[in-house]
Amino acid sequence: RTASYTPSGDVTAATDAASKADVAVIVVGVKSSEGSDRATLSLAHDDDALISAVADAQPRTIVIVCAPGPVLMPWRHAVASVLITPYGGQEAGNGVADVLFNDVSPSGRLPFCIPNIDNEQRWTSEQYPGVDSVMSYSERMSTGYRWYHKQGDVAPAFWFGYGLSYTKFEIGDPRLLEEGSSHSIVADVANVGSRDGVEVVQLYVTWPSHSLGASEPPAQLRGYRRIRVSAGERSTVHFEVTSDMLRLWDESAGRWLVPAGTYTLYVSKDAGTLGRGITVAWP
């Protein structure tokens, strides 16, 4: 394994080195802190330009993004892969190297959506940055993946919960198990790839379309399971459906309530690939 380093400020040297290499790796990032907001979700203009130039010279380009949150990736279709490392800590470098050199199959999943453009959710000035130092949270729960679900006509660049692995998993249709008054959702997870790996299976819930549930965005995350499956094997994940999972805050009553009615539950790899839902009547 031989690696050469080129300073990011010299685009000509970077593209020349990339064109002669087997793989190009670009490390970029942004920073943030308490008490302030990023003015944009974009990388620095020079970073975007460097990535595009290197990707033109070397199709097998890997971009490592060190960021505290979502970052716009207008070049995402031109590169071979993107590795995001939010808050990696002092071992971030070793972790990245383990993934790059195929010593570890990645199993992280995005804890946020990555939008296509700045302000894709169409915040008003009253919502952000606010007027006279006062912000209105009129969007309520319609933020992140919940906003995309509620809109229905736009998808992010990458969904909440998304992440790749060096193997491939298939999640079967969910099944309902009932025993007395208890309910469980189960689904089979098959590793159909050539190496062992970890999948993060996610449970999303849609509330009844009346009462408290009428104003709720559809398909909200209510559980997840991290499951290791050997190559060629399958396993089963179980989610117990509980009242804590289904309860909503009733502002007029000042307490948590579970709306009676029919719920739809989904077992999925991420918020954007929900598949077939299964209905549960509660109580």
UniProtKB/TrEMBL annotation:
Keywords: Glycosidase, Hydrolase, Secreted, Signal. It holds the Pfam family Fn3-like. Its EC number is 3.2.1.21. It comes from the Eukaryota. Gene3D superfamilies: Glycoside hydrolase family 3 C-terminal domain (3.40.50.1700), Glycoside hydrolase, family 3, N-terminal domain (3.20.20.300), Immunoglobulins (2.60.40.10). GO terms for molecular function: beta-glucosidase activity. It is an enzyme of class 3 (hydrolase). GO terms for cellular component: extracellular region. Residues 199-271 form the Fibronectin type III-like domain. It catalyses: Hydrolysis of terminal, non-reducing beta-D-glucosyl residues with release of beta-D-glucose. Its main location: secreted. GO terms for biological process: glucan catabolic process. It is found in: Secreted. Belongs to the glycosyl hydrolase 3 family. Beta-glucosidases are one of a number of cellulolytic enzymes involved in the degradation of cellulosic biomass. Catalyzes the last step releasing glucose from the inhibitory cellobiose. This is beta-glucosidase. It comes from Pycnococcus provasolii. The lineage of its organism: Eukaryota, Viridiplantae, Chlorophyta, Pseudoscourfieldiophyceae, Pseudoscourfieldiales.
